[in-house]
């Protein structure tokens, strides 16, 4: 179910009877129709095992299951319902997946299709120690969420988002604090960019860069501020 942008900070989702989506708790702003909201234990967290790992690391993001029971109609007699989402006045960006995998931090998720396959990736499995260092430098922690298949995802960002294509011939380097998410067959690694000038305080270069290579897209926010 695609999300419709109401403005830069709010989206609306049309939910047909029998459909469901997941949203972060507290993100519902208004709704029409017979929409049911229930706490989700595993949705978007990659199962019980990863959920426990996230909670130990303090990275679990509570989610809600949002759905319309079969045969229910909105107040105008139209089957289904509509829900408006937003959170904290942050900008919202919609990503439409057509079979690819989206890697995004759980606290960046606003809402996403319940039809998407959900998983959790331990950053230590991508680059070992440097993968975990990357998580700490970017503020992402030790885990990242993956969403795959066909559907839509609404993510949160500061100051809006731009999409940068990644090709085998042209990797993209991103300030780790400005990184939001990426999709496709993309490899990422954290590299130190400190030179002797930076070490003695005479330069203005960034201490670390996130290099993304392969084939896909990276989403970059217009700010270095964390959520």
Describe the structure.
There is one protein chain. By secondary structure, this protein is mostly beta strands. The protein is 11% helix and 50% strand. It has helices at residues 48-57, 128-138, 196-199; strands spanning 3-7, 10-15, 20-24, 28-32, 36-40, 63-67, 81-85, 91-104, 109-113, 117-122, 143-157, 161-166, 172-174, 179-192, 208-221. The strands form 2 sheets. Strands 3, 5, 6, 8, 9, 10, 11, 12, 13, 14 and 15 form an 11-stranded antiparallel sheet that branches. Strand 1 and strand 2 (10-15) form a beta hairpin. The longest helix has 11 residues, at 128-138. It is elongated. It starts with a strand and ends in a 6-residue tail after the last strand.
Brief descriptors of the model:
single chain; 227 residues; mainly beta; eleven-stranded antiparallel beta sheet
Compile the SSE list and pairings.
Elements: E1 3-7, E2 10-15, E3 20-24, E4 28-32, E5 36-40, H1 48-57, E6 63-67, E7 81-85, E8 91-104, E9 109-113, E10 117-122, H2 128-138, E11 143-157, E12 161-166, E13 172-174, E14 179-192, H3 196-199, E15 208-221
Antiparallel strand pairs: 1-2, 2-7, 3-6, 3-9, 4-7, 5-6, 8-11, 8-14, 9-11, 10-11, 12-15, 13-15, 14-15
């Amino acid at each position: 179910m695609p999300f419709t942008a109401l403005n830069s900070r709010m989206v609306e989702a049309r939910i047909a009877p029998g459909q469901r989506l997941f949203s972060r708790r507290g993100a519902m702003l208004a709704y029409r129709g017979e929409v049911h909201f229930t706490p989700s234990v595993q949705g978007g967290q990659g199962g019980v095992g990863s959920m426990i790992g996230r909670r130990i690391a303090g990275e679990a993001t509570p989610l809600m299951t949002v759905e319309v029971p079969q045969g229910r109609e909105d107040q105008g007699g139209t089957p289904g319902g509509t829900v408006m989402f937003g959170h904290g006045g942050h900008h919202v960006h919609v990503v439409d997946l057509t079979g690819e995998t989206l890697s995004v931090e759980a606290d960046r998720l606003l809402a996403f299709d319940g039809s998407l396959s959900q998983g959790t990736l331990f950053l230590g499995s991508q680059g070992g120690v440097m993968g975990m260092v990357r998580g700490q430098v970017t503020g992402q922690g030790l885990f990242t969420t993956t969403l795959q298949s066909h559907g839509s995802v609404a993510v949160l960002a500061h100051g809006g988002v731009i999409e940068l294509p990644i090709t085998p011939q042209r990797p993209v380097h991103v300030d780790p604090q400005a990184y939001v998410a990426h999709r496709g067959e993309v490899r990422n690694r954290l590299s130190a960019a400190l030179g002797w000038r930076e070490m003695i305080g005479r330069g203005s270069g960034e201490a670390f860069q996130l290099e993304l290579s392969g084939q896909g897209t990276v989403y970059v926010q217009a700010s270095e501020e964390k959520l």
